[in-house]
Design brief:
Number of helices: 11
Oligomer: single chain
Number of strands: 2
Order of helices and strands: HHHHHHHHEEHHH
Largest sheet: 2 strands, antiparallel
Strand order of the largest sheet: 1-2
Structural class: mainly alpha
Shape: globular
Helix content: 55-70%
Distance between the termini: 13 Å
């Protein structure tokens, strides 16, 4: 349905199960003995990469694909052991988000991050808002979404959220930051007047049948899927 609405006829939804199986197989192959993931099979485990893989696997599991729960649990354990060592609050926010999507709620960490919300970028605020909602901190999640709304940059009839200028960190891309902001708005404040403006911005950033990177494209497709369900 999403591919049809986005006018991407060259993609065949019947190919998706094979693609998911292939992707999961590759992730299993790259899984480290300590429970995490890095860029390669034999390098050091990376906190954001580990969280990103857990997030993807959790989404696949939610959709009914057979995912190795033992591997997800070992990765969540790795993140739990790494939380105290991680100094970057934005990374910690995504780690907590990935765990929450996988069904493991670190409520103390989520509340701690909420108390430090002024130190988070908009990407991290968005995933933290979604984590707060999953942890049933409804009032806090609503408050955070309203902060996200205040940070929006309005250009004509579009709205976006910017990452750090001239930076290439995990949470610094404008498109991906805006996509996660849209997910937070759609989940927590469906009446937000910024939703249509945000969709318009993301649609305008499309380059042929993709966005800037595979990571951008994945984030936008997930956000627009939420939007299609909403509309």
């Amino acid at each position: 349905h999403t591919f049809k609405e986005l006018d991407l006829p060259e993609y065949h939804i019947e190919d998706l199960p094979d693609m998911v199986r292939t992707g999961l197989g590759r992730l299993y192959k790259y899984h480290h003995s300590d429970g995490g993931w890095g860029w390669w099979a034999g390098d050091e485990s990376h906190p954001f990469m580990t969280a990103y893989v857990v997030y993807g696997m959790a989404l696949a599991k939610e959709e009914g694909y057979p995912v190795n729960s033992g591997i997800i649990n070992s990765a969540i354990k790795w993140m739990e052991n790494h939380y105290k060592k991680e100094y970057n609050l934005n990374t910690k926010a995504f780690m907590a988000f990935a765990s929450a999507v996988a069904g493991v709620y670190h409520k103390d960490l989520v509340k701690e991050l909420f108390d430090k919300r002024d130190e988070l970028d908009d990407y991290a605020k968005s995933v933290l808002a979604l984590s707060l909602e999953r942890c049933n901190f409804i009032q806090e999640s609503r408050y955070l979404v309203e902060l996200i709304e205040e940070n929006a940059e309005i250009i004509g009839d579009t709205a976006l959220w910017r990452g750090k200028a001239d930076s290439y960190g995990w949470t610094d891309g404008n498109v991906e930051t805006t996509a996660y902001s849209l997910k937070a708005l759609l989940s927590i404040k469906k009446e937000s007047p910024l939703i249509e403006k945000t969709v318009r911005f993301l649609s305008g950033q499309r380059k042929g049948n993709k966005w800037t990177s595979t990571k951008d494209t994945a984030a936008v497709l997930m956000a627009l899927t939420d939007y299609l369900k909403y509309t």
